[in-house]
Structures are given as C-alpha cells and as structure tokens.
Write a structure and sequence with these properties.
CATH architecture: 3-Layer(aba) Sandwich
CATH superfamily: Alpha/Beta hydrolase fold, catalytic domain
Number of domains: 1
Helix content: 25-40%
Number of helices: 10
CATH class: Alpha Beta
Structural class: alpha/beta
CATH topology: Rossmann fold
Strand content: 15-25%
Largest sheet: 9 strands, mixed
Radius of gyration: 20 Å
C-alpha cells in the first residue's frame, strides 16, 4: 500500500513538473525607454529578459517584419548597430534582442529564445518568420536555434559570426556553459556545432549572407564563415560570403554600415499574409 501511494505521489509530481497542470503564466513586466524616435519596450517574461524596439514608421504593406540580434548582453547592444537598426526601423522593422549571457548556443538558451519568440509573435503580432542577425559568438546562438526552427526563419545575415565552437571559444569553454564534460560534448558534437547541423536550413532554402574579414584572428574566416558557406552551398542552401579584404574582428563601417547587409534584410523580410 505504501509502495502504491509513493508511486502515485511521484506520478502527480511528474505530471505537475511536465507543465500539464497547475501551470501559471509567467509574470511579465514592461518598461519603456526611447531609442531614436521610437519606443523601446524592455521586457521581463518570468526569468527571460529582452527588448522590442517599435518601428518609426509602420510597414506600408501592413506586415510586421522583425530583426532579432545576438548576442544581447543585458539590453540594447549600443551604438555599433545604430546605423543598420535605424534604417530598418524606418522600413517598418521591429528590432528585438533576448539576453542569455555568454551561452554559446546552449540547449538552455535555445529554449529561452523559443519562449521569447512565442511571446512577441503572439503579443505584438510580429511575423512568424524572423530575420536573424548574429554578430561574432552570436553565430553559435542563432544557428543552433535556427536549425531547430527553420520554419520560423526568414533569413540569416551575419557579421563575422562564430560557426564552429572548436575554433572559438573552444570545446572546454563551450562544454562548461552547456553543463557537459569535454568528452560528452565532443561525442555529441553533431547535435550542437552549427557547421554540423545545416541540413534543415538548407532544405528550407533559408537565405544566408555573411560578412567576414580575411584578417580575422579572433574568429578565423576559413574555419567559420568560409566553412559554413561552403557546406551550406553543398547542401543546396542559398548562401553567400561577402569578403572584407584586410579587415579583422573590428567594429568598423565595412561591417556595421553595410548597404549589402541592409538590402539583404529588406529583400528577405517575410511577405505579409494574404
């Protein structure tokens, strides 16, 4: 009898933990600040933090395209993105970010991204397909989320993104963030390393554009953008590499004031629903 009661209690606990009952929606707080001529909504959805900058002018066709930036470390990324963001805002784009710290695309951070995605699409009516902008280690974050959600991705436009964590930050640092041993991460590398996981994106024909300098000593071109675009094209994916000669891992106009990157995002915004 005691054994049966114990099993029942365990079952009830499991049922509750699985989210099937006694679920309460997370507490949501929103504060407003100014960004350019727009309103920036600073969100806290339970333990998930992020921001949504509303467009200066709504899109003429009534759609609500949006750009999702990574890495977001505690809020809006600062002046380096102002040129690109301000132009997209004037074209009706919403600009979003989700703070997950230095996650390097861990499974936990992917789940956080999905919660944020679900909230902003439902709450603000944003397009179901999002344009992703990974900068540097943001590449690990966005590609690992995108390959598990290809139907939610309009395009990926990256600025010297990390595509292979064995190149940067290394297996040791990545494993620590993932809560895994070096051996376990290496054994399961095809489940976590972006360059090994591209098939779903290629099958969905998600457009990809990378800007990368050929003198990047932090995130080497050949092992990251060079290798990813080569593999992506081999899988039949529409990928393009825009090489920036002589430039490294720097916050300079060639990367952050790129007309090609701006036009790429504008071209591939999700079309409005008929």
């Amino acid at each position: 009898m005691k054994h049966a009661l114990s099993l029942l209690c365990l079952a009830l606990l499991s049922f509750t933990a699985s989210g099937q009952t006694n679920d309460k929606p997370p507490a949501i707080t929103v504060t407003e600040s100014k960004r350019f001529d727009s309103i920036c909504l600073n969100l806290k959805i339970g333990a998930v933090e992020g921001f949504v900058v509303k467009p200066t002018i709504p899109a003429a066709d009534g759609s609500k395209p949006w750009l999702w930036y990574a890495p977001t470390l505690g809020g809006y990324p600062g002046g380096r993105m102002d040129w690109l963001f301000s132009r997209l805002l004037k074209e009706g784009y919403y600009i979003c970010g989700t703070s997950v710290g230095d996650s390097f695309g861990s499974p936990q951070s992917r789940a956080t991204y999905s919660k944020f995605y679900q909230h902003v699409v439902k709450e603000y009516g944003l397009a179901t397909k999002v344009s992703l902008l990974p900068q540097s280690r943001g590449g690990l974050m966005w590609y690992n989320w995108a390959v598990e959600n290809p139907e939610k991705v309009a395009c990926i436009g990256g600025i010297y993104p990390v595509c292979d964590f064995t190149s940067y930050p290394g297996v040791g640092a990545t494993a620590k963030t993932y809560g895994m041993t070096n051996e376990d991460l290496t054994k399961n590398i095809k489940e976590h390393n972006p360059i090994e996981r591209l098939a779903p994106l290629a099958a969905a024909k998600v457009p990809v554009l990378h800007l990368h300098g050929d003198n990047d000593k932090v995130v080497p071109l050949e092992k990251n953008s060079g290798e990813l675009i080569k593999r992506y094209q081999a899988l039949g994916g529409p990928g393009e590499l825009l090489l920036i000669p002589g430039k490294g891992h720097a916050e300079i106009a060639e990367f952050f004031e790129s007309e090609q990157l701006l036009e790429f995002f504008l071209k591939h915004a999700q079309a409005p629903k008929k």
